[in-house]
TrEMBL record:
The organism of origin for this protein: Haliaeetus albicilla (White-tailed sea-eagle)
Main location group: membrane
Name of the protein described by the UniProt record: Voltage-gated potassium channel regulatory subunit KCNG3
GO CC field: cytoplasm; voltage-gated potassium channel complex
Domain BTB positions: 7-116
Family from the record: Belongs to the potassium channel family. G (TC 1.A.1.2) subfamily. Kv6.3/KCNG3 sub-subfamily.
Domain of life of the native organism: Eukaryota
Places the protein is found: Cell membrane; Cytoplasm
Subunit structure, as described in the record: Heterotetramer with KCNB1. Does not form homomultimers.
Bilayer topology annotation: Multi-pass membrane protein
Pfam families xrefs: BTB_2, Ion_trans
Region entry Disordered, spans: 125-150
InterPro entries membership: BTB/POZ_dom (IPR000210), Ion_trans_dom (IPR005821), K_chnl_volt-dep_Kv (IPR003968), K_chnl_volt-dep_Kv5/Kv9 (IPR003971), SKP1/BTB/POZ_sf (IPR011333), T1-type_BTB (IPR003131), VG_K_chnl (IPR028325), Volt_channel_dom_sf (IPR027359)
GO MF term set: delayed rectifier potassium channel activity; potassium channel regulator activity
């Protein structure tokens, strides 16, 4: 240490003093403390600590004293744990200040920190404080908004109206209308598949797939055209008022909107260009598939219901657990299908089960037995095969139950986060209504 005098150095952290020799600071495990050894001037010292007393050779750090005490336990004994009754993120902030990382924590505390950081990252990514559309530091400390920012404020209000159903009264009305259109469209789609719906019209399945002038004038065609028009206008407006157009296109719900809207226009264009010739008849299957893609409109309800949003967020966070579950099932399916094929058809026992003629055929029996109670369409007939079937069923119950705990806790966590977000916007809505 090239600055200061005296054989020892005193660190004052939040009022608690620690005394060290100069040589100890050189290789001190905390990077911020070890930086004091190379300070050449008082200015260099003040870049490391908050204050310095030349007479006492004392360095003051305005940090959490109890947290530093636990960090000193790590320096002495090599184990770093969270301070009881202290926020994990606050303690992690203290660790970063002193030069430690999350990997220095014990394993149990690392998991707590990962869960806490996952919650916080989702919260900040999903929300922006109401009334602060800029959401960044450039909006702080500014006085009046410039005249050119009024347009941005209006676009931000429009964006919240279309993206956040609980952000305002207009947003709630718009969400209610959108839900009604989805319900009406689904009812018409389901009713159009009823025999009673087709027989009075005296049309074949291929004719049902065509968008002719006569079909558009029918009540079902008119309702479908109105619903498509509403969804198209809603999607266009949301695209115009969005902040990032590329990010808007990449969002899963927006992709679903496009998949539900474009089949209608593709079908209409195909009818216009092909007319009544045989090409359209051959394309009848394609058109029916395109029309059935309207079922994706049901997923649009995820914008307005927390339950569906919770399901999507849980699947996003638990993709590792889901992959692990699929790996478990695939490994078990490979093992049990090979054994069942061998026991039922591969051995010369006089009676061969034709349902297990190959391993791929046996895979169907394994996956049904592991995930459900079995259809009964194929079953083992030999005693060893039945014993293997019982083991397969029990193994399926155990393997499916292992990752469920992680998925359940993630589901509860996501549900509380979305409920908090919804309640926050509801409070903003109440304030707007009162004003």
């Amino acid at each position: 240490m090239n600055f200061g005098r005296g054989p020892s150095v005193v660190l004052n952290v939040g009022g608690t003093r620690y005394s060290f020799s100069r040589e100890v600071l050189k290789d001190f495990p905390l990077r911020r403390v070890s930086r004091l050894h190379g300070c050449l001037s008082e200015q260099d010292v003040l870049e490391v600590c908050d204050d310095y007393d030349r007479e006492r050779n004392e360095y003051f750090f305005d940090r959490h004293s109890e947290a530093f005490g636990f960090i000193m336990l790590y320096v002495r004994h090599g184990h770093l744990r969270f301070v009881p009754h202290m926020c994990e993120l606050s303690f992690y902030n203290e660790m970063i200040y002193w030069g430690l990382e999350g990997s220095h924590l014990d394993y149990c505390c690392q998991r707590r920190l990962d869960d806490r950081m996952s919650e916080t990252c989702t919260y900040y990514a999903a929300e922006e404080p109401p009334g602060e559309p800029d959401g960044g530091p450039e909006g702080k400390g500014q006085g009046r908004r410039p005249a050119g920012a009024e347009g941005g404020k209006w676009l931000e209000r429009m964006r919240r109206t279309f993206e956040e159903p609980t952000s305002s009264v207009a947003a709630q009305v718009l969400a209610t209308v959108s839900i009604l259109f989805v319900i009406v469209s689904m009812v018409v789609l389901c009713a159009s598949t009823l025999p009673e719906w087709r027989v009075p019209e005296n049309r074949s399945v291929e004719e049902q797939s065509r968008y002719t002038a006569e079909s558009v004038r029918e009540p079902s065609g008119i309702i479908e055209a109105i619903c498509i028009g509403w969804f198209t206008a809603e999607c266009i407006v949301r695209f115009i008022v969005s902040k990032n157009k590329c990010e808007f296109v990449r969002r899963p719900l927006n992709i679903i909107d496009l998949l539900a809207i474009t089949p209608y226009y593709i079908s209409v264009l195909m009818t216009v260009f092909t007319g009544e010739n045989s090409q359209l008849q051959r394309a009848g299957v394609t058109l029916r598939v395109l029309r059935m893609m309207r079922i994706f409109w049901v997923i649009k309800l995820a914008r307005h219901f927390i339950g569906l949003q919770t399901l999507g967020l849980t699947l996003k966070r638990c993709y590792r657990e889901m992959v692990m579950l699929l790996v478990f099932i695939c490994v078990a399916m490979a093992i049990f299908s090979a054994l069942s094929q061998l026991l039922e058809n591969g051995l010369d026992l006089g009676t061969k089960n034709k349902d297990y003629a190959s391993i791929p055929a046996a895979c169907w029996w394994v996956i049904i037995s592991m995930t459900t109670v079995g259809y009964g369409d194929m079953c083992p007939i030999t005693v060893p095969g039945r014993i293997l079937g019982g083991i397969c069923v029990v193994s399926g119950i155990v393997l499916l139950a292992l990752p469920i705990t992680f998925i359940y806790h993630s589901f509860v966590q996501c549900y509380h986060e979305l409920k908090f977000r919804s309640a926050r916007y509801s409070r903003s809505l109440s304030a707007e209504f009162l004003n």
